[in-house]
Design brief:
Blueprint (H helix, E strand, L loop, with lengths): L4 H13 L2 H7 L4 H15 L4 E4 L2 E4 L1 H27 L6 E6 L1 H4 L2 H12 L4 E6 L2 H9 L5 E5 L7 E6 L3 E2 L1 E6 L21 E2 L5 H11 L10 E2 L3 H11 L3 E4 H5 L8 E3 L8 E2 L1 E6 L6 H15 L2
Parallel strand pairs: 3-4, 3-5, 9-10
Antiparallel strand pairs: 1-2, 5-14, 6-14, 7-13, 8-11, 8-12
């Protein structure tokens, strides 16, 4: 049984920095002292956690399996200390929430605004990511809540609330794109265009590919791949690319100046559901539970 959190903190530092020397420096330890801590931890778990290579420290299969649990335990311990400090009035409650870009266009700001109007002393840290990234961050305890499109639950994350069907992604172009002159388009008209899209194996990219496959068409090649929504919009406006963006991001008042809008395409039906997820393991702080209630109210009413 592991009773010393400092061993887990040492393990996490080595895994993150990939070097005993850098990890020892970050923890204000000697390298020999850190080595002894790691040896004791490996003895307790009866498995080698790292491979020592010329390039640095690399997690073994045992280490890879151990890392998310170590991160969760240390994160929960830190959260417990912060929660007690908040109850004593020594610091403000901190809420860590992640969201897809379209949820940041409306759902998350509304929930945070309602929360802070009632408890102005709270602090909220918001991270933007794609659905698969949010699932990983949630499982590792890097965020406490995720607002994203519906995705499968796992042993690490659980569904809290889900919206009704919402209009999903659309093909977008600049207002002066040549394809607009054709009026209503067919999917075949889009095959020769330049596209900027998220990387492969991510939800929006797979939905886009399936949208073409539904008409027995192979999705066109992607010229530029990026995870950054702002970069996608810039490529659409400045370079004449097409992209595939959620309806909420297209309609957001914050981007009405961006000079993009959907193209009119036959059979353009892509529906999605918004959902709120939380970590299945661990305890939510009282401040995070308050935000969760606001998110449940907003998403449940959609």
């Amino acid at each position: 049984m592991i009773r010393d959190l400092s061993q887990l903190r040492a393990f996490i530092a080595i895994a993150r920095l990939g070097s005993l020397g850098r990890a020892a420096e970050s923890l204000h330890l000697t390298q020999s002292g850190l080595t002894r801590i790691l040896q004791r931890l490996e003895e307790q778990v009866s498995a080698p956690l790292f491979e020592r290579r010329a390039s640095g420290m690399v997690l073994t299969a045992y280490g890879q399996a151990f890392e998310p649990y170590a991160s969760l335990i240390v994160g929960e311990a830190d959260n417990a200390i912060k929660e007690l400090a908040a109850l004593r009035g020594l610091e403000k409650g901190l809420i860590k929430v992640g969201a897809v870009g379209s949820a940041l266009a409306g759902i998350v700001p509304e929930a945070v605004s309602c929360l802070l109007s009632q408890w102005p002393g709270l602090q909220v840290r918001v991270e933007e990511g794609l659905a698969q990234e949010l699932a990983v961050w949630l499982a590792k305890g890097e965020i406490d809540l995720a607002v994203t499109f519906s995705m499968p639950t796992t042993e690490d994350i659980s569904l809290v609330v889900e919206s009704r069907q919402q209009e999903g992604c659309k093909v977008v172009a600049s207002l002066d794109h040549p394809l607009r002159a054709k009026g209503k388009l067919k999917k075949e008209d889009l095959l020769a265009a330049k596209w900027v899209m998220p990387p492969r194996k991510l939800g929006p990219r797979e939905d886009w590919q399936q949208w073409f496959l539904d008409s027995n068409l192979e999705a066109p090649p992607v010229t530029v791949e990026t995870r950054a929504v702002d970069a996608m919009r810039s490529m659409v406006v400045q370079c004449g690319f097409l992209s595939w963006l959620p309806q909420l991001l297209i309609q957001s008042p914050a981007i009405t100046h961006s000079l993009i809008s959907p193209l009119v395409v036959e059979s353009e039906t892509c529906m999605r559901r918004f959902a709120v997820y939380r970590r299945r393991h661990g305890v939510l702080s009282s401040s995070t539970a308050k935000l969760l209630e606001e998110l449940k109210r907003i998403v449940g009413a959609m």
